[in-house]
């Protein structure tokens, strides 16, 4: 009876046996994986095993007919299955920070070496270059100081006290004139004093004479005559010499050849006698042809006398001049006035008249310094209007 029951029981078919075998194999693999997860992670392939464990624990598995109890029991037998999912991100973060720290520890020393080497060498180069420049600067300053002292000693030897007294005497006279003529432009005194003091320095020989041209309008005629006379006398007296004076207005009606000869004789004889300055009043009133004689005395390179000063005056036709005129404007006014006065379209090539080419050459020689003179309320009572 028992034998029949056993034999009569339904035996499992091939499909059922195959499923049971696959379930047992899967249970064995999961038990091994759970044991590895419980023990930790492998050092050799830690990132790959962690990823596989994370996938396997989260993969949905359908229930099986047979072996489901075994699968549940294997999951229960594992020590701490949920910790695999919870610790996975922690292990990834730690390993990431550990690797990044190791990489930084390897990179930072190299980077520090690269930056520290130039930083250690740069101050040395800069300090040496700085010391070198400092030495050059000190040597340059010392050289300039030595040269200056040598030049000063030589200058003091070549400039005698008498010449220093001459310059001081002239400057004193100019200060007095500045008080007598208070209406004059400060630029007039500055330019004239600078111009003539340079002439008083005889350390180096002069290559050309000094030419000064003063101009004024009709209202300042007397101031122009007095001031030009006194400036020339201040210059000559500082050199213990006399002044040559020529009145152009008194020769306006004479023949130009005669005037030319008279002017030439007076200038030549006076400079030969030792006179150092000459004043030619009313230059515009001289006959046009006679003014060509000033080529001889005012030339830049071939002047007959090079260590002398000539002061010319030009009285304009205008009644007054504006004080806000620039010096360049004043110079242009004088030039245009002389052009209209000396040129004659009727006989342009005549010897007794001035043509444009001759006047251009003359103007370039007499226009070294052109300055305006303004009217004064009171003139000195020392006979400054008298002529010799």
From TrEMBL:
Regions of compositional bias (Acidic residues) in chain numbering: 23-51
Matching InterPro entries: LAP1C-like_C_sf, TOIP1/2, TOIP1/2_C
Topology relative to the membrane: Single-pass membrane protein
A GO cellular component annotation in the UniProt record: nuclear inner membrane
UniProt-annotated location(s): Nucleus inner membrane
GO biological process assignments: membrane organization
Region (Disordered), start-end ranges: 1-125
Family: Belongs to the TOR1AIP family.
Record protein name field: Torsin-1A-interacting protein 1
Species in which this protein is naturally found: Terrapene triunguis
